[in-house]
Structure formats: structure tokens, C-alpha cells
């Protein structure tokens, strides 16, 4: 339940169109619902503006199904990250409108329309191998009501490809840069644009990449200002933060 819905509920009680007992029924699961294996935070959208997201990795198929079954009753849009195809197939059985992005490994269920931002987020990758992490950011940003422009495979090994799309990138309100190996693209873009950059290091690369550590350290040490960094392969975190910035 978000702020708008809570206000409408209280107005309904005030004007007499909803009795107190029915209103209490709607509020009985606030602030959380205890399923035994999970405590679903129904109060989160009211507090921070976005509903709880299901991190599917490490959960059983039955646990994710149980969480989704309850969350559907609240009418919010639902996002599940790091979901296997097996989990998606199980969720699809209880909610036929569930959609799966196999690159991002995300499940989305759209239960209500969210106003889409007039400004957009540019999500940029250095290489094609970085697309799965970028797609997680795309799906996250879109389900929270943001326009997104994808600019993929424009890394520094062929920097002329970046310049070809620079006008689109510069018009974004916030930019997410996804890169592995040495992660140089975030710093390069930081010297070319006047918008905040969220850098996402990926685990793409050979041995000395150390599973994304080299890209993480390079991004943290960017000589260009205006670059912030999220965790390795954390497309969700970048998509969430970019949505907050885009909607300021």
C-alpha cells in the first residue's frame, strides 16, 4: 500500500463510504506479513516509495511461490531478481501474466499502472557480455515507472562507437554504466557528460579481473567526478538508485 492508497483509504473512512471494520481488514497485514520463512514488508512502499522486491537466489521454489501468492493480494507490481527458469515456471502457474527476462533473470508481474517519467535513464554497457547485468537494471527501472534508453557495446576498445551515441546519453537525467575487465567506460563518460553516473562493475573478464574486483577498484578510483559505484554485478541496485534520481 503506497501513500496515495493509504490516503484514499482514510478518506473513505472519513466520508463514510468504508466502515472501520473493512478498513481494519485492509490494514491488518501492515507493517509486515509473517509467512514463517519470510516476513513480507508491506509497509515499505509507504516508507520509501517502492514496494519490496523478491531476491529469489537461495530461496526454494515453494518459498518464492508463497511470497508471490501473498504479494499478489496487495495489488502491487512485483519484481523478482536472480530467478531461475524453474522458479518462473512455478510462478507462472499461479500468475499467468508473470513475465520472465531470461537475460536479466527477472520475474515481473504488473498489477497496476505506474506513471512513467518524462525524463529517461541511459543504461550503457561496455560490451555485449555486460548485457545481462544491464538488463537487470533496465527491468528494475522500468517496473518503477522510468523510461530507459539502452546503449549497448560501446566500450573503450572501440571508443568511436560511444561518440556515435553520445547525444542520446547526454540527454538522459542519470546514466548507468555497466562494464567489466578494467571498467574504464565509467571514467571516460564521467569526463564527457554533466549528469550523475552510476557505475556497475561486472565479473566479466579474464583471471586478473578477479571476478569483477579490478573493475570495481578502477571505478572507485575514477579520476572523473560525478561517478558513484554499486556492487559487482548489481544491476538491480543501479536500476533502483537511478530511478530515485530520475524521479527527484
From TrEMBL:
<feature type="domain" description="PurE">
    <location>
        <begin position="119"/>
        <end position="248"/>
    </location>
</feature>
<dbReference type="InterPro" id="IPR000031">
    <property type="entry name" value="PurE_dom"/>
</dbReference>
<protein>
    <submittedName>
        <fullName>Nickel pincer cofactor biosynthesis protein LarB</fullName>
    </submittedName>
</protein>
<dbReference type="Pfam" id="PF00731">
    <property type="entry name" value="AIRC"/>
</dbReference>
<dbReference type="InterPro" id="IPR039476">
    <property type="entry name" value="P2CMN_synthase_LarB"/>
</dbReference>
<dbReference type="GO" id="GO:0016787">
    <property type="term" value="F:hydrolase activity"/>
</dbReference>
<dbReference type="GO" id="GO:0006189">
    <property type="term" value="P:'de novo' IMP biosynthetic process"/>
</dbReference>
Amino acid at each position: 500500500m503506497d501513500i496515495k492508497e493509504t490516503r484514499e483509504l482514510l478518506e473513505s473512512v472519513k466520508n463514510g463510504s468504508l466502515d472501520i471494520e473493512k478498513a481494519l481488514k485492509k490494514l491488518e497485514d501492515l507493517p509486515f506479513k509473517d509467512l514463517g520463512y519470510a516476513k513480507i514488508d508491506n509497509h515499505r512502499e509507504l516508507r520509501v516509495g517502492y514496494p519490496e522486491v523478491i531476491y529469489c537466489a537461495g530461496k526454494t521454489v515453494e518459498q518464492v511461490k508463497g511470497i508471490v501468492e501473498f504479494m499478489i493480494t496487495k495489488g502491487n507490481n512485483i519484481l523478482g531478481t536472480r530467478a531461475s527458469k524453474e522458479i518462473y515456471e512455478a510462478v507462472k502457474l499461479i500468475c499467468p501474466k508473470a513475465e520472465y527476462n531470461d537475460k536479466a533473470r527477472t520475474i515481473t508481474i504488473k498489477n497496476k499502472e505506474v506513471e512513467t517519467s518524462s525524463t529517461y535513464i541511459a543504461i550503457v554497457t561496455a560490451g555485449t557480455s555486460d548485457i545481462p547485468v544491464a538488463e537487470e537494471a533496465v527491468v528494475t527501472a522500468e517496473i518503477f515507472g522510468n523510461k530507459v534508453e539502452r546503449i549497448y557495446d560501446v566500450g573503450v576498445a572501440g571508443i568511436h562507437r560511444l561518440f556515435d551515441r553520445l547525444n542520446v546519453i547526454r540527454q538522459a537525467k542519470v546514466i548507468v554504466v555497466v562494464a567489466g575487465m578494467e571498467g574504464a567506460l565509467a571514467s571516460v563518460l564521467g569526463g564527457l557528460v554533466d549528469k550523475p553516473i552510476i557505475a556497475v562493475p561486472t565479473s566479466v573478464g579474464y583471471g586478473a579481473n578477479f571476478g569483477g574486483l579490478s573493475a570495481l577498484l578502477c571505478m572507485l578510483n575514477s579520476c572523473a567526478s560525478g561517478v558513484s559505484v554499486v556492487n559487482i554485478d548489481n544491476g538491480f541496485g543501479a536500476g533502483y538508485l537511478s530511478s530515485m534520481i530520475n524521479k527527484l
